[in-house]
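FAQ: What does the model actually see?

It sees only this:
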Amino acid sequence: MTNGLSPASSGPAGSYFEGQVGASYLLSLLVGAEPRGLPGTTIDRVEFQRGSEGRPLDHVIVHAHDGQGKPVVLEVQVKRGITFAPGDPIFRSVVVQMAKASLRPEFFKTRYELGIAISRTSHKIDGAYQDVLTWARQLRDAATFINRINRPGSANDDMRSFVKTFREHLQDAGSSHNDETIWQLLRRIQIFVFDFTAPGSASEALAKERAVRALHSDDTSRADVLWTTLTELAIKIASSGGDSARDQLVEDLRQLSFRLTGDRRYSSARAALAEASRHALADIGDRVGGVTLTRHERVASVHAALDSGRYIEIRGDAGVGKSGVLKHFAEQLAAEAQVIVLSPSRTIPKGWLAMRAMIGFDGTARDLLSDLAGDGSATLFLDSLDFYGEEERRTVVDLVREAAKVPGFSVIATARRDFASTEPSWLPADVLDQLGRTQPVVIDELSDAETGAAVD
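And it is asked to produce this:
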């Protein structure tokens, strides 16, 4: 553990919540998992409280490398109480920090991400604000992005307010606030929800599952202790503005009498799964009648359904854009972590064991799903339930069964409007009950307002 300059002049090391967020990245470092917010990368080291060394978002700084060995950086600011509302002073201060981060010479030349870790979310954060960030990442240039935000009926008032507030905070800070700067910054921002402070926290349960896999098989009963130790270690490192690489972290834990398992990396299997999911998403069109749809009301309905259950079906007739809504959620989540997207033509048949062999995975289905959920990817996407063959259904059923056992894991599926109307769904009823079923979200034909808001 290497200590940097002391951040004592900047205040205390931070809250226990900040320590838990830091510990989650230390745990990813320990087990070789992909860091949340940097899918497809491997962590090299994690730094804490480096504001005095030119890291404006200084609570957690993740240094990683991608598959080509190129350096990647994620700066994370931990803000439990941020609302992102126009009058929120915390949001104002974070935007100022982001403006300072953008002045680093490598910021616009490399993969350099900015994260905000929060303890609880809201409908505006899950919906409008995340949608703004998703559009910024997806759209090809600043002009297209700003035009979509400003077009009546395309974006909603909450989205426009978010962008307007962001621009005003940059302006008040004396920073560049033109359309290009707005777009370039927003496309690098991610909002992470760590629900450590909530009763029955899914984030804590997933962290402890990952801690089990980090420990020797004879020492797994100490998973709770390992998680607490990592939290305390993150707080200790932060108090001196230090950092940790994996070798040092392993040695620190061995000094505390933890027996760790061997290096168990799932990178090749996860890469195969990620590639298959990208192809499945690419097959899904989000254009109807030659135009791109935003469909805010339908997206909002799915967000609302997720509040009441972990299994959501998006139903509608052919060609109304239900798969496009699923694609919206999958692409939004893919910025934070790798996702699993299955479709009838891109599902390995004959069950989980066949899938495991095909992707070269050496653990259980629960190992895979909880590992993905620990990175922030806690949703299984299933397109076109009506068209799976018998052998593909076996694989889907195996995965849905295990997903139901993983804390906080959800399943979002699409189907025709009359799916399961004449006979029961082929997905096991008891598993769907365990997930918690919601009323199907029905996608209708385009309304006049949606037709007018369609994007060329």
